[in-house]
């Protein structure tokens, strides 16, 4: 073992020292493996991801399957009749009697975002802040992978995991729409899914960024969940107020839903707003994460 | 220059209003095993985490392989093997999967040595990480620090959690690494483990180096505890002012003192009387260590006092000068 070590090390000891000191390239192979961190994170969470895949598929499946019994039979219209007008507007139930309105009120307007936010926020808060707090990130951060790369790869894990779960929602919904002969176009479902993805990614990014900037999981969750709830409330309140336009203007939920994407497709300015909402904090936090002290 | 692998100059680190490092200077040369000693809270881990670029100094400079950790970045860390002081490992994955992942982060370097090292430390690679005992997790930590045969090993309290047999195995591995050309910088709050292998030792206290010497010199300074018994009471004055002798206590027919250096003068004085009993015991470096941490805590064994020292560190005002005087 000793002689082994000597032969493998001796050729590059001195040159490596001088090369590194001079800022030159290191002669030994140190390709710190492209997406190693991303693959490891997804691998570590594979059980959780499988569980969430099943949960999301089942919940979406159940709700879409209720349509023939509820909407087609006129049950929902009867229910709405009995509800106060304000509540109907706040819940976005105006069009619940149509297939598109029903899907928007259930899968895409409420259950989908809630399930995905619960997953997305906790996942995003854990990946940097949570693992930094419990110390499990230390070996990765002392490895020859740049901090910025650790950050990006872990952020990508959030991006990929949410994309996967949204794909599951889209697949289940499109499949059941066809099976139940509902009048909703597949392009609109895909556009709406994209909108929901961008919405959830926006808040997950915010949680991720807040966690990476501060190293505190609680802050990550509070910022992400707090703004998600406020945004939801703003979107719900907007139709109730005479001059509620500004509430829609500042609510990411409204950017996603106000254009009724299942009927008219996703609003482009809304989608761009969501993308910006996701990328700006994530971009700012990487600078902070690269500069600050870790794990203190 | 290129033979100093680790250098810190006036390193200062503040956490808010608390000063963790207060102008720490040290140099570790290529090929040495350098012991970095001090009680918990003295600034050992803070120093080490600056070297790994996890913390950024408030002032002063740290260099590893001649560049700051910030500038050195991943390329610098590729040449370092690091064992954290508080190793946290979790997850359902097996030890093998984790170690394989850590090797991948190094571009695959070291992966082939994992089975051999695991066997050496008697670690079952197929068990999930989260089910491992503290000692077994520490083995994983040791393996990942050594597997890529780094030029520089930075080990923070490496033997904590390892049983004596494994501590021995660990120390053997450190020696082998040094034999293969590696440099070792290891911290500890237990002197005996460092004493066995280290060439030089720095003692850190409240964020400063208070003593820096090779182990032999420290050993010399530590001296011997000498006890002499006589057939009849002896005059205390006879033992006053002997070279190398201090802390003399004469109690009728017995004399206790501290001896540093040659025993000649002491023996010649003792020989004037009828000596019935004698013993000379090497003081542990622990005792020297305590000289630096002498605190208003009476009569406790080494570990308790060391802990008390960190708890009471802010109440003591002494510095390295104290020890200079004691010598």
What is the strand and helix layout of this fold?
The complex is a heterodimer of chains A (296) and B (327).
Chain A: H1 2-9, H2 13-21, H3 36-44, H4 46-65, H5 67-72, H6 75-81, H7 85-91, H8 99-133, H9 138-141, H10 147-180, H11 186-214, H12 217-237, H13 245-250, H14 252-257, H15 261-264, H16 268-291
Helix pairs in contact in A: 3-10, 4-8, 4-10, 8-10, 8-11, 8-12, 10-11, 10-16, 11-12, 11-16
Chain B: E1 4-15, E2 18-29, E3 33-37, H1 44-51, E4 59-64, H2 69-77, E5 80-83, H3 95-105, H4 114-120, H5 134-146, E6 152-156, H6 164-179, E7 183-188, H7 191-197, E8 200-205, E9 208-214, H8 215-222, E10 224-230, E11 245-251, E12 254-259, H9 264-270, E13 275-282, H10 285-292, H11 302-312, H12 320-326
Parallel strand pairs in B: 3-7, 3-8, 5-6, 6-7
Antiparallel strand pairs in B: 1-2, 1-4, 8-9, 10-12, 10-13, 11-12
Q: What does the model show?
A:
The complex is a heterodimer of chains A (296) and B (327). In chain A, helix 3 (36-44) packs across helix 10. Chain A has one domain (34-291). By secondary structure, chain A is mainly alpha-helical. Chain A has helices at residues 2-9, 13-21, 36-44, 46-65, 67-72, 75-81, 85-91, 99-133, 138-141, 147-180, 186-214, 217-237, 245-250, 252-257, 261-264, 268-291. Chain A is globular, with a radius of gyration of 24 Å. Chain B is of the alpha/beta class and 327 residues long. Chain B has two domains: 4-218, Rossmann fold (3-Layer(aba) Sandwich), CATH 3.40.50; 224-282. Helices cover 34% and strands 28% of the residues of chain B. Chain B has helices at 44-51, 69-77, 95-105, 114-120, 134-146, 164-179, 191-197, 215-222, 264-270, 285-292, 302-312, 320-326, and strands at 4-15, 18-29, 33-37, 59-64, 80-83, 152-156, 183-188, 200-205, 208-214, 224-230, 245-251, 254-259, 275-282. In chain B, the strands form three sheets. A six-stranded mixed beta sheet of chain B has the order 5-6-7-3-8-9, sandwiched between helices. Chain B is elongated and about 75 Å long. Chain B starts with a strand and ends with a helix. The model of chain B is unreliable at 295-327 (pLDDT under 50). Classes of the chains: A mainly alpha (296), B alpha/beta (327). The interface between A and B is large, with 46 and 49 residues.
């Amino acid at each position: 073992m000793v002689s082994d070590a000597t032969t493998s090390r001796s050729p590059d000891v001195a040159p490596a020292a001088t090369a590194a000191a001079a800022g030159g390239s290191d002669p030994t192979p140190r390709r710190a493996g492209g997406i190693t961190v991303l693959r490891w994170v997804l691998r570590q969470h594979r059980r959780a991801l499988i569980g969430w895949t099943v949960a999301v598929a089942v919940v979406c499946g159940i709700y879409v399957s209720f349509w023939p019994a509820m909407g087609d039979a006129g049950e929902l219209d009867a229910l709405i009749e009995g509800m106060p007008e304000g509540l109907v507007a706040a819940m976005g139930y105006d069009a619940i009697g149509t297939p598109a309105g029903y899907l928007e009120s259930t899968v895409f307007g409420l259950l989908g975002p809630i399930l995905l936010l619960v997953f997305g926020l906790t996942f995003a808060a854990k990946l940097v802040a949570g693992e930094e707090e419990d110390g499990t990130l230390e070996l990765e951060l002392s490895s020859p992978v740049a901090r910025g790369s650790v950050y990006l790869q872990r952020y990508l894990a959030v991006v990929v995991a949410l994309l996967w779960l949204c794909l599951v929602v889209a697949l289940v919904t499109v499949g059941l729409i066809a099976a139940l002969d509902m009048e909703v176009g597949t392009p609109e479902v895909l556009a709406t899914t994209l909108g929901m993805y961008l919405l959830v990614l926006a808040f997950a990014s915010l949680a991720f960024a807040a966690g990476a900037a501060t190293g505190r999981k609680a802050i990550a969750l509070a910022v992400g969940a707090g703004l998600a709830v406020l945004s939801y409330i703003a979107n719900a309140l907007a139709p109730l107020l005479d001059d509620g336009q500004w509430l829609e203007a500042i609510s990411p939920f409204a950017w996603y839903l106000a254009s009724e994407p299942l009927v008219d497709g996703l609003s482009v300015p809304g989608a761009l707003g969501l993308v910006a909402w996701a990328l700006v904090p994530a971009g700012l936090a990487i600078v902070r994460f690269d500069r600050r002290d870790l794990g203190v | 220059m290129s033979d100093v692998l680790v250098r810190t100059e006036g390193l200062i680190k503040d956490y808010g209003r608390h000063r963790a490092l207060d102008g720490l200077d040290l140099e570790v040369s290529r090929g040495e095993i350098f012991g970095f000693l001090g009680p918990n809270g003295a600034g050992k881990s803070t120093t080490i985490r600056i070297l790994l670029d996890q913390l950024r100094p408030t002032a002063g400079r740290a260099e590893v392989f001649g560049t700051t950790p910030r500038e050195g970045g991943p390329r610098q860390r590729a040449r370092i093997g690091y064992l954290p002081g508080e190793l946290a490992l979790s997850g359902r994955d097996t030890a093998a999967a984790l170690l394989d992942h850590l090797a991948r982060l190094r571009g695959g370097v070291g992966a082939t040595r994992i089975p051999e090292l695991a066997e050496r430390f008697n670690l079952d690679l197929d068990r999930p990480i989260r089910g491992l005992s503290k000692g077994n997790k520490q083995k994983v930590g040791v393996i990942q620090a050594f597997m890529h045969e780094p030029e520089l090993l930075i080990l923070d309290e490496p033997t904590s959690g390892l049983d004596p047999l494994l501590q021995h195995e660990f120390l053997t591995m450190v020696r082998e690494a040094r034999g293969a050309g590696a440099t070792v910088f290891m911290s500890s709050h237990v002197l005996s483990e460092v004493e066995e292998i280290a060439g030089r030792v720095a003692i850190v206290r409240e964020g400063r180096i208070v003593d820096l010497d090779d182990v032999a010199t420290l050993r010399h300074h530590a001296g011997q505890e000498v006890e002499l018994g006589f057939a009849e009471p002896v005059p205390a004055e006879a033992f006053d002012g002997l070279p190398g002798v201090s802390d003399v206590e004469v109690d009728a027919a017995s004399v206790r003192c501290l001896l540093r250096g040659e025993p000649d003068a002491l023996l010649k004085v003792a020989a004037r009387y009828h000596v019935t009993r004698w013993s000379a015991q090497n003081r542990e470096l622990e005792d020297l260590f305590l000289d630096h941490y002498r605190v208003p805590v009476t009569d406790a064994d080494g570990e308790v006092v060391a802990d008390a020292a960190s708890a009471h560190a802010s109440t003591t005002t002494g510095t390295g000068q104290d020890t200079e005087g004691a010598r």
